Amino acid sequence: MASHIRRRKFLATLGGAAACPLAARAQQAGGVRRIGVLMNLASEDAEGQARLAAFHQGLQQLGWTVGRNVQIDYRWGAGNADRIRKFAAELVALAPDVILSAGSPSVAALQQATRSVPIVFVLVVDPVSSGFVDSLARPGGNITGFAWAEYSIGGKWLELLKEIAPGMTRAAVIRDAALTAGGGQLGVIQAVAPSVRAVTPVNVRDAGEIERAITAFARSPNGGLIVTGSTLAAVHRDLIVTLAARHKLPAIYFARYFVVGGGLISYGPGLVDQFRHAASYVDRVLKGEQPADLPVQAPVKYELAINLKTAKALGLEVPPTLLARADEVFE
To answer: What pTM was computed for the model?
Structure first.
């Protein structure tokens, strides 16, 4: 807890420096570079703070220090489409040298606002189908970054959930239907689910819809949840984990922080690491390289996390072979 408090104070200090108009004018006069950051979570979200701390650490290792040679303007979308569009326009109006953007909705809003300001993204599942880049090898425009994962991860989620909950015969797939990735991940899961009688999509739009859909799904036995990657799932993660526990539903999630918060199992790339790596592309843009020439990077490491306390509460025994493969086990 103390480390989270220290991190928030550290970032608040940085944000304050970036927000002061007089300081901004003085810095620009001295040749200080300007970075915009459009986050997909809320400003008080501990996961969002951890991601920004990693980004700042990456920048500092490359020689960029807030208040000396760079200033950073932050906006927090909190999964709200209207806020994201508003903040995208605000950041572009500030004429930054580069913008760091988290999540597909944020990138889409920035793409609508500018075709010239360089954008480095993180946490985007399919940047080609989403229309953000021409190809992974040659992005071709003002946008590049770090892809979150391939659609094939959906098959791995189903495999792992069946391994920890072998009695599961029905799966509810929680996805954001507004995202290209939402349909893509669902399609993969449906294609590799011969041992599951029914795969039911659950759209993530608001808390009420999530609660109604999961409650209705839980009325029949032998069900499990697959929570696919999206900003809205991240924003509503506490509710989803709570509903899974309330209805005794085994669930697999796309990110470790769900398991930290009481979820059963997660599998996916390290999200905080993407922000640390993103600093390298921001650095290269600030030094004159163009996003069009920087290939989109794929994840290099995937993490498997298991919560044994949650497994026990669900009456599940985690196979030793699965425990042996876990990167992190919470007890």
So the answer is: 0.84
